[in-house]
Amino acid sequence: ETGVTQSPTHLIKTRGQQVTLRCSSQSGHNTVSWYQQALGQGPQFIFQYYREEENGRGNFPPRFSGLQFPNYSSELNVNALELDDSALYLCASSSALNYGYTFGSGTRLTVV
Amino acid sequence: LAKTTQPISMDSYEGQEVNITCSHNNIATNDYITWYQQFPSQGPRFIIQGYKTKVTNEVASLFIPADRKSSTLSLPRVSLSDTAVYYCLVGDIPPGKLIFGQGTELSVKP
C-alpha cells in the first residue's frame, strides 16, 4: 500500500491540448513533488510544493504548473502539450520527519 | 547536488547476494545516501538511507566507507521479485529535490 494515489493511471491527449493530473498524498505529508520519467530514464524533478507554496523547480517550462491543497492533494497542469511530454508522471510526498519520499504509481501520459 | 555513478545493469541468480556500488566523489558534508527501487510502471520505492559506516534493515544493507565517496547496496539472497531498477541518490535531509541518474537494472534469473 503506497499511501500516495494518482489519477488517472493512463491518459491519451492530442498535441496542443491541456491536461491535469491529480495526486492524493498521505495525511501529514506537507511536501509534494512531481517528476517526469521518460522511457528508460530516471525520474526528472519538475517542481516541489511545501504548505501550498512552490519552493523549488526543475528545468521545465512555465507551461508546467501545479497546485497543492490543504487536504494533502495536489495537481500537475501541463498546457500546450507536445509529443515529448509523453512520459510517466510521478507524484511523491514527504513529511518533515521522514527521510524518504513515498511515490505514487504514476500517470502514463501519451501525447499523439 | 553530488552526481552519482552506478553500473547500468547487473545479472544475478536466485539465492545469491547482490552488491551494487555507487560512486559519489563530490558528496557534501550534509549529504545522506539514499537508495530507491523501481519496478516497471510503478513509482520508486525507498529502500534504505545512511550517512556513514553500515545501515541494515529488513530489506538490505548499506555500506559506506570512511571517505563517503562511494556506497554499496547489498541485497541478501535475491529472488526473481528483486528484478528492478535501483537508484542511488545523494542529498540533504529533509529531502529537497531528488536527482535520479539512470540507475542500475538488476536482472535476477532462476
In total, the number of strands of chain B is 9
Cα-based radius of gyration of chain B, to the nearest Å = 13 Å
- Oligomeric status of the shown chains? heterodimer
Number of strands of chain A: 11
End-to-end distance of chain B, in Å? 38 Å
| Order of neighbouring strands in the sheet with most strands of chain B | 1-9-8-3-4
Structural class of chain B: mainly beta
Average pLDDT across residues of chain A?
92
Strand content of chain B: over 45%
Q: Helicity level of chain A, as a percent range?
A: under 10%
Could you walk me through the main structural features you see in this protein, from its secondary elements to its overall organization?
The complex is a heterodimer of chains A (about 110) and B (about 110). Chain A is an all-beta fold. Helices cover about 0% and strands about 50% of the residues of chain A. In chain A, strands 2, 4, 5, 6, 9, 10 and 11 form a 7-stranded mixed β-sheet that branches. In chain A, strands 1-3-8-7 form a 4-stranded antiparallel β-sheet, with no helix packed on it. Chain B is mostly beta strands and about 110 residues long. Chain B contains no helices and 9 strands. In chain B, a hairpin with a 5-residue loop joins strand 6 and strand 7. Classes of the chains: A mainly beta (about 110), B mainly beta (about 110). The interface of A and B includes residues 48, 92 and 96 of A.
